[in-house]
Amino acid sequence: MIPYKEHEISSKEIRNRTLISFLVFVLLLVLAITLWKWLNHQPQEQGALKPLRKVLNYNEDVFNNFLSNNHLAKTFPVSSAVKKVRVNGNIGMSKDFDPTTWKLKVIKNPGDTLIVTIDEIKSLPKTDLVFDFKCIEGWSQVTHWAGVTFADFAKKYGLSEQIQKKYAGLITPDKRYYVGIDMPSMLHPQTLLCYEMNGKPLPMNQGYPLRLIIPVKYGIKHLKRIASISFSNERPPDYWYERGYDYYSGL
Ligand SMILES: Nc1nc2c(c(=O)[nH]1)N[C@H]1C(S)=C(S)[C@@H](COP(=O)(O)O)O[C@H]1N2
Ligand SMILES: [Mo]
Fold this sequence. Notes:
The chain has one domain: Sulfite Oxidase, Chain A, domain 2, CATH 3.90.420. 25% of the residues lie in helices and 24% in strands. It has 5 helices and 12 strands. The radius of gyration is 26 Å and the shape is elongated. The chain is α+β, with helices and mostly antiparallel strands. It binds the ligand Nc1nc2c(c(=O)[nH]1)N[C@H]1C(S)=C(S)[C@@H](COP(=O)(O)O)O[C@H]1N2 and molybdenum atom. Molybdenum atom binds next to loops.
């Protein structure tokens, strides 16, 4: 036992300490309320309060700098892919869509659009991918997809000038859902222009005839039913970014 000296605390000392504790408590309370009020009076920036958006942007930079785009998402054997794949999100999936006349529009430059049919896309090298698809809402599912990697597609169609740009923008035919993707993620070896799920053409509600599968990102970026792809150095509009989510939404 370590000997210790007993020390008598006078009632005056107790009173002083109680008073100090109370004053510190009041001070912190006032500070917290002031901070909360200040935060709520800050302007909005892309769906989030400006100071919070700054934190999101900072997080984005951290992810961008520390996650190498050559880092591959974990893959699984085909047998572990679920048969009943969840359907989530139907924005931009209007009933009036006619899949028989669908063609992919690749907007190379203003006034220079490349038109590609689904058969042309299917004739390119095919990549199968079984990975854990993660939605920002908290669920995940091991699912099996196939298509052409965007990297192979870009090579085949001579998009060397386009892939120098910083971003790609993808939009549904009705223009109601749209995503912006940074070019390194677009060119990632597991990013697919996807036309198959579980070895069969995509079901209608899962993006038939063509969707994006991009395992380095959360589900919100896997746009179903692609109408067009464009390229820019400025961030293309992004549906969920405009509603306060992280632009990068990387994993
Ligand atoms: N066109 C379109 N694509 C979309 C969405 C959407 O609402 N509309 N939702 C996204 C979200 S939030 C997720 S989790 C995935 C779900 O893909 P699934 O329906 O094939 O499971 O699609 C993404 N792509
Ligand atoms: Mo999602």
